[in-house]
Design goal:
Blueprint lengths: L2 E5 L3 H10 L5 E6 L2 H10 L3 E4 L5 H6 L7 E4 L4 H14 L3 E5 L3 H14 L3 E3 L1 H14 L5 E5 L4 E7 L11 H7 L4 E8 L2 E3 L12 E7 L3 H7 L9 E5 L3 H11 L4 E6 L2 H10 L4 E4 L5 H6 L7 E4 L4 H13 L4 E5 L6 H4 L6 E3 L1 H17 L6 E7 L4 E7 L20 E8 L2 E3 L12 E6 L13
Parallel strand pairs: 1-2, 1-4, 2-3, 4-5, 5-6, 12-13, 12-15, 13-14, 15-16, 16-17
Antiparallel strand pairs: 7-8, 8-11, 9-10, 9-11, 18-19, 19-22, 20-21, 20-22
Helix pairs in contact: 1-14, 6-9, 6-14
Length: 452
């Protein structure tokens, strides 16, 4: 377990703190808001210091010289970078900084080794990147990668006409030419780690692992391939809208970006010459109709107000837009999204928190944990973990069917040198393998946690 300091307790800082609580780390939090520190000390088993986290005196008061990791997430890019410099100077082993300003990002990435920063996170850039991947793969809701990109963990919806509907996992295994493993299913509010007799229903959200090279073959085989998108509408010209439009404009997409603030719209029109930037209120149905929402393949709602994003996304669905992607910041709204037909949603704080937690798990690998990569799925109800089988265990070299795997755990993939193995009951774990496990349990850090 590690000694971790979090500086800046905004939405991302609190999300990371919530995720780390209960993992056994020693955590210290620093923020200038005394009431916030007192509330979080009361809620979680953490130490707290009130003050400016970039000040040497405050860092010494927090005993940061003993820290394995400092995560700096204040609202100021400059303060975050400076706080990391101070932290490295007093002996913190690793630092992570949030840097959001596009003007700084490129130079800080180039200088991060000189600055002693191990990782730079940008919530808006990370979110835009996730949306870009969703648009690039029309059939897919979400995609993550293990084993340096060789294994894909994919979320799809069993829509009408999909060949998965009505099949059990056993019957699918016999029918399909492409080998995948369905490892988690969301049905309404229920999350299921399925067994062989589990039968797929229309509307299920299905998470599966596959060899990245055969992903397209599987989607084609089960009738989930959709024609590529061409026309994209984005509502909201904030940083996410800018990063997304910029990335999409470098491909063969036709993009229309609606922004209500005239000065911002004018600036975006200059910065994005390949994008049609419209000064208009994208939350008004008459504006959306006038700007051609009915001809769009994808619609992305990125205003700062969740409820507005939800309403315009529902309107886009009503107009039969093929894919609608919605930014949702508040955790309280997630429970109603499926019922409202909002299937593709992104949350900047969860995307960045997931990246940082994955980094922490990988860092802990050097001090006892065997987790190489970690993703949180289904609104953080499920974890997908890539373990390194680096020390000999008594359950190695035995068929999986003979192992007593804990309830609500599934061994989803085995990576052996350059071979990707989608396992069945006869597969074995061997010394040196990487093993992907999907589970509703939290805080696993070793393969021993998976086997009873």
């Amino acid at each position: 377990m590690m000694n971790i300091v979090i500086i800046g307790l905004g939405t991302i800082g609190r999300t990371i703190l919530k995720s780390l609580s209960g993992e056994g780390h020693t955590i210290t939090i620093i923020d200038e808001d005394k009431a916030k520190i007192e509330k979080l000390i009361e809620k979680y088993d953490v130490y707290g210091v009130v003050g400016n986290g970039a000040c040497l005196e405050i860092q010494r008061e927090a005993k940061m010289e003993d820290a394995d990791l400092a995560i700096v997430l204040t609202n100021s890019d400059e303060l975050n970078v400076f706080a990391c410099l101070v932290a490295k100077r007093i002996g913190v082993k690793n630092t992570i900084a949030r840097v959001r300003n596009p003007d700084y990002r490129k130079q800080i990435i180039e200088m991060k080794d000189d600055l002693g920063i191990a990782m730079i996170v940008n919530p808006e850039q990370e979110t835009a990147s996730e949306i870009f991947h969703i648009i690039n793969l029309p059939s897919v809701n979400q995609i993550e990668h293990f084993a340096k990109g060789r294994v894909s963990l994919v979320e799809v919806i069993a829509e009408k006409g999909c060949a998965l509907i009505g099949e059990t996992l056993i019957s699918l295994g016999k029918k399909l030419d492409t080998k995948v493993l369905i490892c988690a299913v969301q049905r309404g509010d229920e999350v299921i780690i399925p067994t062989g007799n589990f039968r797929i229903q229309e509307g299920d959200k299905i998470h599966f692992t596959a060899d990245a090279r055969s992903l397209g073959d599987f989607l084609s085989e089960v009738n989930l391939i959709k024609s590529p998108f061409k026309n994209i509408m984005i509502v909201g010209g904030g940083r996410i809208g800018y990063y997304l439009a910029d990335a999409l404009s470098k491909k063969k997409y036709k993009i229309k970006l609606l922004e209500d603030r005239l000065s911002v719209a004018e600036e975006l029109a200059e910065l994005l010459p390949k994008v049609t930037v419209v000064h208009g209120n994208g939350t008004r149905h008459d504006v959306l109709i006038e700007e051609g929402i009915e001809a769009m393949d994808a619609f992305v709602a990125l205003t700062d107000i969740d409820e507005e994003n939800m309403i315009v996304s529902m309107f886009a669905n009503k107009k039969n837009v093929k894919k609608t992607i919605t930014q949702i910041k508040s955790d309280d709204l997630y429970g109603m999204l499926d019922e409202l037909g909002i299937n593709n949603n992104v949350s900047p704080k969860h995307i960045v928190a997931g990246r940082i937690i994955s980094y922490i798990r990988a860092l802990a690998n050097s001090v006892g944990s065997n987790v190489l990569t970690m993703y949180q799925l289904v609104n953080n109800q499920v974890e997908a973990l890539e373990f390194s089988a680096k020390k000999q265990e008594k359950f190695y070299n035995k068929p999986l069917r003979e192992l007593n795997v804990k309830k609500d755990c599934l061994i989803a993939c085995i990576i052996r040198q350059n071979e990707v193995i989608i396992p069945d009951g006869n597969s074995e774990i061997r010394l040196g393998d990487n093993v992907v496990v999907v589970t509703t349990h939290k805080n696993f850090d070793d393969l021993n946690d998976v086997i009873e």
